[in-house]
Fold:
Amino acid sequence: MNTMKYSLIAATCFAFPTLANAVPVDLSGWTAQGGSSSWNVQPGNDTVLQTVNGAPTIFFDPTVTSTQGTALSGRISVQESGDDDFIGFVLGYDSGEVFSNSANFFLIDWKQGDQAGWTQGLAISHVTNGSNGNTSGTSGSYWQHTPGQVNLITRATGGLGNTGWVDFTEYAFNILFTSSQITVSVNNVEQINITPSDVPGLTSFSDGSFGFYNYSQPRVLYAGITQVDCSVTPDAPECQSGSVPAPATLVLFGLGLAGLGWSRRKA
Structure:
């Protein structure tokens, strides 16, 4: 079975290993969908900065329709202190789904502060109807996680379920995504681990693109994105659920979020 992993690790200046199996992800061909946004790919093409405070927006590779079986690693940080809203990722995303009434993808979102009916912390939801999401206010389905539209599956259980992200702090991530499992770890602590049985009506998770997600939060940096094909190297440390490889060659992080990438298509 193909596996794919992500994990998030927090630190302001954090030593992270150079991974032998990891390949940098080229974000230069990725595109934005959703609300107003400005996704600016940085030199090197493995880092992107989103600068606009607006409605939900997703940045993804429209040429990729399958990401199950790929381990993705990277870093994320918010480079300002004037807001406290949503940052995160999407899994199994198909082009046009963000505001579609027939959406079918998974949203990992992390809010910094309590506001307007939604509390701080990291969570995962199943998006089945995004048509009420095109708003930069607090009444849309993405903000309220409205049942029947953006359906909350679970909050993180490893300490971040009600803990917001911190300004100017870098988090490294790893995520595992297969047809039968989604695992999210932060700081090498497993935060989310779900199977299709945790989602009403599902027997398997649908495939699709991986992407970055912002809602009402400017100055979000996703940096140093790498990927590993776990079908080729299933024993690679990056491909193990809930783990981050022990440092070998250390690289000092400055700031940012780890990007993600994919290269395999849906059959």
In short: The longest helix spans residues 141-144. The two ends are 14 Å apart (CA to CA).
